[in-house]
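User: Please predict the structure of the protein below. I'd like the answer in structure-token form so I can feed it into my own downstream comparison script.

Assistant: Understood. Taking the following sequence of 153 residues as input:
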Amino acid sequence: MQAIATTRVDDFGDPRSLWQRLTRCMSVSVITTVISLSTLGIATALFGVAAWAANILATSVATVPSYHLNRRWTWGRQGASDPWREVMPFWILAFAGLALSTVAVGFTDAWAAHVQLPALLHTATLLGAHLSGFGLLWGVQFVLLDRVLFRRA
């Protein structure tokens, strides 16, 4: 129970418990998931973009606000980002999720086409596959962000 009470002080002197960081990170994930799923759905259903390409686009679009919201709001980091210590590892984590998600989306797309799912159900299965890759990595990502990327010096 003591781990939940672990606090960190941000650049404004505001202590944030592990629980606060966890819930804020989850909130950021909800926001960026809406962005990602909207991008994926619109790209595939309305513009006919191949599922794997739309998945890359969706991840790229959602990673920008995810980085900034997590860095500033969740972990209270201010000032310039360190491109090698913060930005690059964050994008690597995002694209690890993308790799898992793209494999899931590719398999799901082929399966949905093979069984001739109706368009709406086909799109819904693609969105579920997209979520699966990122969902698998969410816990690992939180720990890495909290203990490595955005930890206090």
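That's the full token string. The helical segments are 18-46, 51-74, 83-114, 119-149.
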